[in-house]
Task: inverse folding
């Protein structure tokens, strides 16, 4: 359910300034969800395991963005 549409909002992603369209929806604990169109247009390379995405701005200047790593506990399961 979209509450509002913002057609052009200034953002800065790790030094890259841009104006983006936002659909405002209640996300719970997420700050923002990135659309597939944006990922495609910015030639994004995703590294889900390390929570890093690499993207390219005009002139092919490479930028990185890293999320906060989440501690993962692995529980051993065994059968006999």
Result:
């Amino acid at each position: 359910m979209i509450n509002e549409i913002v057609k052009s909002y200034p953002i800065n992603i790790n030094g890259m300034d841009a104006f983006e369209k936002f659909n405002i929806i209640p996300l719970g604990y997420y700050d923002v969800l990135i659309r597939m169109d944006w990922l495609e247009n910015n030639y994004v390379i995703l590294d889900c395991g390390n929570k890093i995405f690499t993207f390219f701005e005009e002139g092919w200047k490479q930028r990185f963005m890293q999320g906060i790593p989440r501690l993962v506990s692995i529980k051993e399961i065994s059968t006999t």
Summary: The first strand starts at residue 4 and ends at 13.
